[in-house]
Amino acid sequence: MVIRANFVNLKINPLAVVCYRLIGFLFFISGICFAQPSISIKQATAPIVLDAVLDEPDWQTAQVASHFMQYFPTDSVPARAQSEIRLTYDEHFIYVGAKLYNLGPRKYITPSLRRDFRGEANDGISIVFDTFKDRTNAFFFGVNPFGVQREGLIANGGGNGQDDFTLNWDNKWYSEAKIYEDYWIAEVAIPFKTIRFKEGLSSWNINFYRIDSEYAERTTWSPIPRYFDIVNLASLKELIWDKPLKNPARIFRLFHTVL
User: Fold this and answer.
1) Could you report the per-residue pLDDT of 203-223, keeping only the tens digit for each?
2) Nearest to 95 by CA among 134, 48, 143
3) Which CATH architecture best describes the domain 14-241?
4) 89 in Cβ contact with 47 (< 8 Å)
5) CA distance 79 to 73
6) Are 202 and 244 in contact (CB under 8 A)?
């Protein structure tokens, strides 16, 4: 049986359109208002071993960044595949532990195992640090389920989208990734001397975003409207240190003049 519908005389109620958009806007605002405004980071009490297991006591007591929101395909609903991020640090490194949940067992496919991968077909978790807390420049670190790394710089607040984002910056940092039955874990150690930051600040700005090819979903911890690029720095949340940081001697290799 073939059913043909005639839409010639179909009329759309303008009030319904306004209500639909208002509901979407309220969902987005509620995601901002009721989500965590910040995350705290405390110094580790014991060594952290990079093995993508997250079984050290400091991971168990660390505050969790959760309740990710969709950025794509829509920016007004919670993520289907949720994520949990924890942070800690010691004298030399800032550590990030990410647990990326799935809706069930799955296989991971990546177009390339090349460093500095790019594209929405690549599963991965990314961390954005605004270390001067000016929402102008930021450091970017990412890793995929196979342990492939990428790092870059964001300039001009990310206001020009991908034009303000470059992967032409390379530095030494460490990560391990491991795939489990219905989630994967990334554990990251970034040397303080790799990045620049303002001494004495008690907080930075931060965000995390995840690309998931299985569900065609891009999600962020701090919600970002679709009309902004995902690297936009306007919506960052606060990373609160347990004590102001001292700036170590830096080894900073800058291959792109975006900062």
Assistant:
1) 999 999 999 999 999 999 999
2) 48
3) Sandwich (2.60)
4) no
5) 10
6) yes
